[in-house]
Design a protein that fits this description.
By secondary structure, the chain is of the alpha/beta class. It has 13 helices and 15 strands. The longest helix is centred in the first third of the chain and has 25 residues. It binds zinc ion.
Length: about 400
């Protein structure tokens, strides 16, 4: 075989292997016969691809739980015991580190949580310690670590350009720094992009190619899946609707400007307004409790944030025309009654045709599941391009 044919043959094998991974991720543990049927590839091609994935430690074979009549085929599944990945979630108030098999199942037993430190050096020390703790308990091969961060990630420069809610991350790359300390490949992930991947891999966006994820819990983050790819822009910074000016004389935003949508449409914004009214600083959790106790006292604050959240949601729907929009938040999103009021306002601010295309879903997606999905997605993507 000449050089060019050899490259084409390798690429073709990898594309088939990736197809196998996708089928196993979608259908769960499957026999080779099922993989053949679902993938539409020939039995010998499936066998070759599965054998290669077994050798590389991406999948493992197990006996089926129930023995059916005849000779049951063994099941091929994502490597849950013989391989692992780690997810690291850095957030304004708290961080967590989680270990999971390649099946992506996360558990509290394999999760370490701690409060976010005041300095970058101390944060990195804690992350390293917790990662080492989890890595010590893993017997199989560790394929990589997904590090999810809030803020603006410039993929070309390979750093967090600016993190309005956690400035110790400005101009930093915790993934690169952790990789140097741990000797394990680490990948920097913008948290809402990771939430998108998590929702598609393990949540309600299964099989969707055009959807968006709006996170309004701390800052206002947006991740957009367009045509099956995370929308990145030139440097990976696309989708920052949170920093559109909506109030010319508004309060100072973490980005340096005034009156950004982020300062009016989020849980943090509601916490600020309620704190101002009560004359003492309250956290989002304290404000949520205060509002449940006496909702009548905060009608004005709730109405302001409801209006601006509706503007944010309408902007995303008008601009990106998604089939689904997942909204992640604590106070307005988690209460069915309050979220219904937001949706009422969205109806009046969105183009009717675009809104008709779109299902809006309140979600509780977890950022630790998202960090795992991010590194899994990267592993699969690095292996071969997707053909669909
Ligand atoms: Zn801003």
């Amino acid at each position: 075989m000449d050089y060019k044919n050899r490259i084409e043959s390798t690429l073709l094998s990898r594309i088939n292997e990736r197809r196998m991974l996708e089928v196993i991720q979608q259908h769960g543990p499957s026999s080779r016969a099922t993989l053949t049927r679902v993938s539409g590839l020939t039995a010998p091609t499936v066998s070759k691809a599965v054998d290669s994935l077994l050798r590389r430690g991406f999948v493992e074979e197990v006996d089926p739980l129930e023995q059916s009549l005849g000779r049951p085929g063994r099941l091929v599944r994502m490597a849950a015991e013989s391989a692992a990945v780690l997810g690291v979630v850095i957030d304004a108030a708290a961080c967590c580190v989680v270990a999971a098999g390649l099946d992506g199942k996360v558990s509290e037993a394999q999760t370490r949580r701690f409060a976010t430190q005041d300095s970058y050096a101390a944060l990195l020390d804690s992350l390293e310690r917790h990662c080492r703790d989890l890595l010590g308990g893993i017997t199989g091969r560790v394929h990589g670590i997904g590090v999810s961060v809030p803020g603006l990630v410039n993929e070309r420069l390979g750093e967090i350009v600016c993190c309005p809610n956690l400035h110790i991350l400005d101009k930093r790359n915790p993934a690169r720094d952790l990789e140097q300390r741990l000797g394990v490949a680490c990948l920097l992930l913008q948290e809402t992009d990771a939430l998108c991947l998590g929702e598609r891999m393990y949540g309600d966006a299964h099989g969707l190619h055009d959807f968006a994820m709006l996170d309004v819990s701390t800052g206002l983050g947006l991740g957009v899946m367009a045509g099956g790819q995370v929308l990145a822009g030139h440097s990976g910074m696309a989708g920052e609707v949170g920093h559109i000016t909506v109030d010319l004389d508004g309060v100072r935003c973490g980005c340096g400007n005034r009156g950004c949508l982020e300062t009016l449409a989020t849980d943090t914004a509601l916490a600020r307004l309620v704190s101002e009214k009560l004359g003492r600083p309250l956290t989002v959790a304290e404000v949520a409790a205060e509002i449940s106790r006496r909702p009548g006292d905060f009608q004005h604050e709730l109405r302001v944030v409801t209006e601006y959240l509706a503007i944010a949601i309408a902007a995303v729907i008008n601009i990106f025309n998604p089939t689904a929009l997942f909204v992640h938040g604590e106070i307005l999103v988690c209460s069915a009654e309050r979220f219904a009021r937001v949706l009422e306002r969205v109806k009046q601010r969105t183009l009717t045709a675009s809104l008709a295309d779109c299902t809006i879903v309140a979600t509780r997606s977890s950022k630790r599941q998202a960090a795992i999905a991010g590194i899994m997605h990267h592993m699969t993507n690095a292996w071969a391009p997707s053909i669909r």
